[in-house]
Amino acid sequence: MRIIINQSDVERIIAFAVTLAPEEACGLIAGEDRPDGVRQIRKVYLLTNMDHAREHFTIDPREQLNAIRDMRANGLKPLGNWHSHPQSPARPSIEDQRLANDSQASYLILSLADPGKPILHAFHIEGPAHARKVRKEELERMEEAMDFQVDERVDITDVVCPVTFVKTKVALEELEDGQILQVHLNDGESVQNVPRSIKDEGHQVLKLNKNDDGTYELYIRKRGD
């Protein structure tokens, strides 16, 4: 099956998973199965892993119920789920296969094993529990224009942790609640630690884009004190 996902949703998944690493992150995907046989992901849900574990996840049932209600309200079909592998490849583990009980679902797996090169793949899993059949699905990313306006920019490629976070925090303090900061940062510790620290401060990580030169653009919405 061919699956289409918006690049912005891929970036949301990556940014969310990075902030939770080394724990697995998880969520649901929703959209439609088009008449041409293409599965179109229209919305991605970033949910809580109640296990807070590195090698398995359990989606918070209350959040899952709210997500299903939101799908129904917006005319979307549940298409499956996604989760991250903080330290292993983007393919179903034995436990992933054991728990894959919906033969109609698509399972998206994000690998963060190489922090500078996150990898997202999609899979179909079916068959009895003792003999699962795993098939990789074609996953196509669709580019979208950014749906927000950047209010301020800061370059932190010239500093190292923990000064990277300090410089980002100072820049955010200059903004009004709801405004958006674009941060130009390096690979490695910066891209691993800054998004997580920003989320811990209560701000919203909107996107995390990788540039051709290996640096990143981090987009943050400031939240009030």
SSE layout:
Blueprint: E1 2-6, H1 7-20, E2 26-33, E3 38-47, H2 61-73, E4 77-85, H3 94-99, E5 106-111, E6 119-126, E7 133-142, E8 152-155, H4 163-173, E9 180-185, H5 189-200, E10 204-210, E11 216-221
Parallel strand pairs: 1-3, 1-7, 4-5, 8-9
Antiparallel strand pairs: 2-3, 2-4, 5-6, 6-7, 9-11, 10-11
Poorly predicted sequence stretches spanning 5 or more consecutive residues: none
Please give the largest β-sheet: 7 strands, mixed, barrel
Shape: globular
Strand fraction: 35-45%
Number of helices: 5
Share in helix: 10-25%
Query: Gap between N and C termini, in Å?
Result: 46 Å
Reading side by side through the largest sheet, how are the strands ordered? 1-3-2-4-5-6-7
Give Rg in angstroms.
18 Å
What is the strand tally?
Answer: 11
SS class: alpha/beta
Keywords:
4-stranded mixed β-sheet, 225 residues, 25% helix, 7-stranded mixed beta barrel, alpha/beta
Descriptive notes:
This protein has helices at residues 7-20, 61-73, 94-99, 163-173, 189-200, and strands at 2-6, 26-33, 38-47, 77-85, 106-111, 119-126, 133-142, 152-155, 180-185, 204-210, 216-221. 25% of the residues lie in helices and 35% in strands. The protein contains five helices and eleven strands; from the N terminus they run E-H-E-E-H-E-H-E-E-E-E-H-E-H-E-E. The chain is globular, with a radius of gyration of 18 Å. By secondary structure, it is an alpha/beta fold.
